[in-house]
Amino acid sequence: MGKCAFSNRRRELEDKFFHERDQALLQALREERESKERKRALSEASGITDEDLLRQLDALDVRSETLVALSLIPMIAVAWADG
């Protein structure tokens, strides 16, 4: 019985380890897919095609909506100066 208990415990620990590893890999895949989607949206909104620049913008948590809003700043500054 002692040997069987150890065998069952070993199996439980293996299952737990692999389940946690699978979950970590799935999370990494989800994050990679979400990052690609954000970079695609940034590229469409800004016309930027440089992958390194898109990666840096994504790392800085800049979103496509932010870039669209930033494009309005020059018009706002002119309107403000014009009164």
How would you characterize this protein structure?
The protein is 87% helix and 0% strand. It contains four helices and no strands. It has helices spanning 2-46, 51-59, 64-71, 73-82. The longest helix has 45 residues, at 2-46. The model has no long low-confidence stretch (mean pLDDT 90).
Keywords:
about 80 residues; mainly alpha; 4 helices; about 85% helix; rod-shaped
Quick rundown:
The chain has 83 residues and is an all-alpha fold. It contains 4 helices and no strands.
Q: How many individual helices?
A: 4
Order of helices and strands: HHHH
**From the helix content, strand content and strand pairing, which structural class follows?**
mainly alpha
How big a fraction of the residues is strand? under 5%
Care to count the β-strands? Answer: 0
- Taking pLDDT < 50 over at least 5 consecutive residues as the criterion, the unreliable ranges are none
Outline: rod-shaped
This entry's quaternary arrangement is: single chain
| Gyration radius, in Å | 25 Å
Helix content bin: over 70%
Distance between the termini: 88 Å
Task: Give the SSE layout.
Blueprint: H1 2-46, H2 51-59, H3 64-71, H4 73-82
